[in-house]
Design brief:
Layout lengths: L1 H32 L1 H8 L10 H34 L2 H5 L6 H37 L7 H9 L5 H30 L10 H31 L4 H30 L4
Helix pairs in contact: 1-3, 1-5, 3-5, 3-7, 5-7, 7-8, 7-9
Length: 266
C-alpha cells in the first residue's frame, strides 16, 4: 500500500512540480516588478496607465498560474486514474501483486494529498507575495516575539478542538467523495456493454448522476432540517460526515464491482 502511494506521488510530481515552481516564482517576482506602482499608491500619487510591462506580465502570470493549479489538479485526478487503470499502463497496474482495494485507496489518498499540497502552495505563494510587497514598501513586519505573544492570547478549549477535528474530517471526506465520484463515472463505462465512446459516456454520466443527486438532496432537505434542529453544531457536522461517508461507500462499491467483475481494458 505504501509503495503504491509512493509511486503515485512520484508519478504525479512530474505533472505538478513545474507548475508549482513557476507559481511561487511569479508570486515573489510580481511585487518586485510592480514596486513603482506600489510606491506611487502608498504616496497617494495619481499614476497614469503606464504600468511596467513586466509587472503586468507578472500579475497576469500569478492569476493564470492560480487557475492552472486548480484546473490541472482536477484534470490530472481524472486523467491519471483513467490512463493508469484503463489505457495501456492499465495492463501493468492491474497485474500488480496488490488487491483492488489497495489500488483504489492508494489513488484516493494520493489525490487527497495533492489537493492539500495544491492548497498549501497557493497559500504559500500569496503569503510570499504579501511579505515581499510589505518589505518593499517598508512595512513593519511583526517580530518573532510579537507573533508568539499573539499565539499565546489564543484560547482553545475542548469543544473548539472537537469542532476543528470534525471540520477537518468533513473536508477530507468531502475530498474523498469528489475523487471517488470522478473515479466512478470513469469506471462505469469500462465494460463490454459500452465498447465505444467511453469518454463521452463518462461525461454524460457525470452530469446525469449530479442532477439525480441534486434532486435527492433537495427531497431530503426538509427531513434533514427537522432532524438537525435538535442537534448542536458539532452534531450537525458529524451528521454531514456520516452522509458523506455513506456516499463514498456507494461510489467505492460501484468502482470495486466493475473492477472486479465487469472490467474490460482497452
Amino acid at each position: 500500500m505504501l509503495k503504491l502511494l509512493k509511486y503515485e506521488l512520484i508519478h504525479e510530481w512530474r505533472s505538478y512540480g513545474i507548475i508549482y515552481l513557476i507559481f511561487i516564482a511569479a508570486c515573489v517576482l510580481s511585487p518586485i516588478l510592480f514596486k513603482d506602482q506600489m510606491f506611487a499608491s502608498q504616496a497617494n500619487m495619481v499614476v497614469e496607465s503606464n504600468m511596467s510591462v513586466l509587472g503586468v506580465i507578472a500579475v497576469l502570470a500569478v492569476t493564470m498560474m492560480t487557475m492552472a493549479i486548480i484546473i490541472s489538479t482536477a484534470i490530472n485526478i481524472a486523467l491519471n486514474y483513467r490512463n493508469s487503470m484503463f489505457k495501456r499502463p492499465g495492463y501493468l497496474t492491474l497485474t500488480l501483486p496488490v488487491t483492488t482495494h489497495q489500488l483504489i485507496l492508494s489513488k484516493v489518498l494520493a489525490d487527497i494529498l495533492w489537493i492539500i499540497i495544491a492548497g498549501f502552495v497557493l497559500m504559500l505563494g500569496y503569503t510570499l507575495m504579501v511579505l515581499v510587497a510589505g518589505i518593499l514598501i517598508g512595512m513593519d513586519l511583526p517580530s518573532w516575539s510579537e507573533w508568539m505573544r499573539l499565539f499565546s492570547m489564543i484560547h482553545i478549549d475542548l469543544s473548539d478542538l472537537i469542532t476543528l477535528f470534525l471540520s477537518l474530517a468533513l473536508i477530507l471526506s468531502g475530498m474523498a467523495e469528489m475523487i471517488l465520484y470522478v473515479y466512478m463515472v470513469i469506471t462505469l463505462p469500462q465494460t463490454r456493454f459500452t465498447p465505444r465512446h467511453k469518454t463521452a459516456i463518462s461525461v454524460a454520466l457525470f452530469f446525469v448522476i449530479s442532477m439525480i443527486m441534486g434532486l435527492i438532496r433537495d427531497s431530503l432537505s426538509g427531513p434533514l432540517h427537522y432532524m438537525t434542529q435538535s442537534l448542536s453544531g458539532n452534531g450537525v457536522i458529524a451528521l454531514e460526515i456520516m452522509f458523506t461517508l455513506l456516499t463514498c461507500a456507494l461510489f467505492y462499491g460501484a468502482i470495486y464491482f466493475v473492477l472486479e467483475k465487469k472490467l474490460e481494458v482497452e
